[in-house]
Design brief:
It contains 23 helices and twelve strands. It is about 55% helix and about 10% strand.
């Protein structure tokens, strides 16, 4: 039956670890994890109880920004300061500064106190400062401008005193700093005042010099120079011109209106517009005469002398009134002409005055500029002087500090250090972390074979069998032992892996010593024999033979005697308790025959044994140590590579496989040996089922008294009876 093609001809990519792989590592390395955990935990607990008790006291202060006492002269109002995200952190550093803490050390005499406590008589201030910095902790209360000053000390009272004194000294330093700023500000104002005063005096000298040089008659304060209103003389002339033009317009309009009226209308208008006593008297007489005429005309005829006399008087009075009206109109016309002439003259005077003023303005410009500069400098000087007075008065008024002590520190009765529960919990956590870390680090450094995936990935070869830990001789354990099933699985996989049924010679190799190849080939031969096959087991490990010890027979005669033609094959082959299993010991190896396996006799022996037996098994030395294993691998039909679980690096195993392939050996697969199934659940599914089943069967049989043994069964603890040493058997030819 041809075995199916495997998938190991091409390299496989490295797979990622599964959670169960981590759990497997933890189970395997649990001793390391537990040891590190206990070591760290016990060390932490011991150190915690040895540490001296430390007390903490907390003082809380409210801090605010220092606003300048003297604001800018150009500042029109109080401006709100911008938000500073680093303000609290800056104050932390100020509190821990030498300026604050050295004063605390001096006020509390900590230098002498700590010198006595720590056995240092001459404790320097710098050393005391370092100690104090390490004994305080500053924190900000969440979402507030409050600062918590935490002081730590072995003495309760000292911790409270340090916290309170730091708060007090910090407050004093801030107040001193504020006063210092105010004093510096006043000094700066005084210096600026003196400079400004010198500028005013210099400007005054310039103004006086220009006034004398240019012959300027000083003007009122309202006139500030070229950009201000015109001089008073020009303004007065212009006002007179405006008034004359208005008068002319009014009189001219009145004259024109009066000329349009009739005589009778003028008699009623002129007395109102121009009241005259004479005209009023004449109008009164005219009114009386008209009344007299009206009363007489009813009694007398029109030609009556009295009527005519009254008519004559009325005519005379009207003539006088007309003359008065004509005189008024003539006089008004004269006034109109005069007003027109005056307005025209004043207009000319204004133009002339403006030209003269423009000329004077250009001439006097330096003087007015200097005068304006003098007035500006004088205002600045007056402002500085008033500010100095205000700041001097303000500096003498008591002020609220920007630092307010909210809570004073109190003596605490309970120590904050060491925190026994916290330290032990942290020790346990750190111990677990270190334990797991060390376990995984050791696992990382361990390059030995751990899983079937490691074998198949590194060697590109199938795993034909997984052998549990502590496997002994199947002659002792019996065919129904849980370990026997692992070898039966190996036998089945081996038979299905060989492509030619005529291949019947097998050797087992390993990279190093002690990987269990001799036990593996011994038990594998027994399983084949128990299945009815005729099997020959050859101990070809000539340098360190061991199979004769498992059979409890002599090693005086064996393979070497046959190859050296000292004995025949029938004389050296021995029988065993298994009827179909024969054993050929190694025999004594002379020092002159170390390369006997690489001889023609060995090749003929292999060919001869293949013809007589169904299967021939050859034990071999480690392939990395001597050349015998490579010779055997090249001569026999099939080879198995035994790898002990977690013993040798993978590089050594890969090298062993390469050596087999290099000599032309047919490597069927790998046997993973010495697996602790109880600890590594990864391999439970390979042998655990049968292991549990047969364990229960053995337990039930051991409880029975005087139970009968099955045919061929050897119970644990029994020693099989070996045939007499030197006994030989007749080996029949193959049918």
């Amino acid at each position: 039956m041809e075995a199916p093609k495997n998938s190991y001809s091409t390299p496989q990519t490295e797979t990622k670890l599964h959670f169960l792989d981590y759990w497997r590592i933890i189970r395997i390395r649990k001793t390391v994890i537990l040891a590190v955990f206990l070591l760290v935990l016990l060390t932490t607990t011991a150190v915690t109880f040895i540490m001296p008790e430390t007390y903490m006291s907390t003082a809380r202060i409210e801090v605010g920004k220092d606003t300048p006492d003297i604001s800018s002269l150009l500042q029109l109002g109080q401006l709100q300061q911008p938000y500073d995200p680093y303000f609290i952190q800056t104050e932390f550093e100020k509190i821990k500064s030498q300026k604050v803490l050295t004063r605390v050390i001096e006020d509390l005499h900590l230098q002498n106190e700590w010198g006595k406590r720590y056995g240092r008589d001459n404790l320097k201030m710098q050393d005391a400062y370092k100690i104090l910095v390490n004994q305080i902790d500053l924190r900000q209360s969440r979402n507030t401008s409050l600062i918590e000053i935490r002081a730590f000390s072995d003495v309760r009272k000292e911790a409270a005193d340090i916290a309170n004194k730091i708060a007090e000294v910090y407050k004093e330093v801030r107040q001193e700093y504020r006063s210092e700023l105010s004093a510096k500000g006043i000094d700066a104002l005084k210096q600026e005042y003196q400079k400004q005063k010198d500028l005013v005096e210099k400007a005054q000298t310039t103004v006086d010099s220009l006034r004398l040089e240019l012959g300027v008659s000083d003007v009122p304060e309202a006139y500030l120079g070229y950009s201000a209103s015109e001089p008073q003389a020009v303004q007065q002339i212009d006002r007179d011109r405006v008034s004359a033009e208005a008068q002319y317009a009014h009189l001219n309009e009145l004259l024109q209106q009066l000329r349009k009226k009739k005589r009778e209308e003028l008699q009623g208008i002129i007395p109102v517009a121009y009241p005259m006593d004479e005209m009023n008297r004449q109008l009164g007489e005219l009114h009386k005469a008209e009344q007299q005429y009206a009363s007489m005309i009813t009694d007398y005829a029109p030609d009556h002398p009295d009527v005519l006399r009254v008519v004559e008087i009325m005519k005379k009075i009207k003539t006088q009134i007309d003359d008065q009206i004509a005189g008024v109109l003539a006089g008004l016309e004269v006034k109109v002409n005069e007003s027109k002439a005056l307005a025209e003259q004043l207009r000319k005077n204004v133009e002339l005055a403006k030209r003269e003023d423009a000329a004077n303005r250009a001439k006097y410009q330096p003087y007015f500029t200097a005068k304006r500069n003098l007035e500006n400098q004088q205002r600045i000087l007056d402002t500085i002087f008033m500010r100095i007075l205000a700041e001097q008065v303000d500096s003498k008024i008591p002020k609220n500090s920007n630092v307010v002590i909210v809570d004073n520190a109190q003596q605490e009765q309970k120590a904050v250090r060491p925190n026994v529960p916290l330290n032990i919990a942290l020790g346990a956590i750190v111990g677990l972390i270190m334990g797991f870390g060390l376990a995984f680090f050791i696992e990382y450094l361990d390059t030995s074979v751990k899983t079937i995936d490691d074998v198949e990935r590194a060697l590109q070869a199938p795993v034909l069998g997984v052998i549990p830990q502590n496997v002994g001789s199947l002659l002792v354990e019996g065919p129904d032992s849980p370990h026997a099933e692992a070898y039966r699985v190996l036998r089945t996989n081996l038979l299905f892996s060989r492509k030619d049924n005529e291949k019947r010679t097998i050797t087992v190799v390993s990279g190093g010593a002690g990987e269990g190849k001799s036990t593996t080939i011994f038990n594998l031969a027994i399983v084949f024999a128990q299945n009815g096959a005729r099997v020959l087991l050859v101990d070809s490990d000539l340098r360190r033979p061991s199979l004769h010890k498992l059979f409890n027979v002599s090693n005086s005669l064996g393979l070497t005697n046959f190859l050296l033609k000292q004995n025949t094959l029938e004389e050296v082959v021995q029988t065993t308790q298994v009827p179909t299993l024969h054993f050929l010991p190694s025999g004594k190896l002379p020092s002159s025959s170390l390369g006997i396996l690489n001889s023609k006799q060995m090749s003929e022996f292999i060919h001869q044994s293949r013809e007589r037996y169904d299967f021939v098994f050859f034990d071999s030395p480690p392939i990395m140590g001597v050349s015998d294993a490579s010779i055997l691998a090249s001569e026999v039909d099939m080879a198995l590579l035994v790898i002990q679980y977690r013993k040798y690096p993978q590089v050594m195993t890969i090298r062993a496989k390469q050596m087999v392939e290099k000599v032309g050996g047919n490597l069927l697969g790998v046997v993973l040996n010495n697996i602790n199934i109880s600890q590594d659940s990864y391999y439970y599914y390979y042998s655990g089922y049968y292991y549990d089943y047969y364990s229960k069967q053995d337990d039930s049989e051991d409880t029975k008294k005087n139970g009968k043994r099955k045919n061929g069964e050897v119970k644990n603890g029994d020693v099989p009876k070996a045939p007499d040493r030197g006994t030989t058997v007749e080996i029949k030819q193959k049918y």
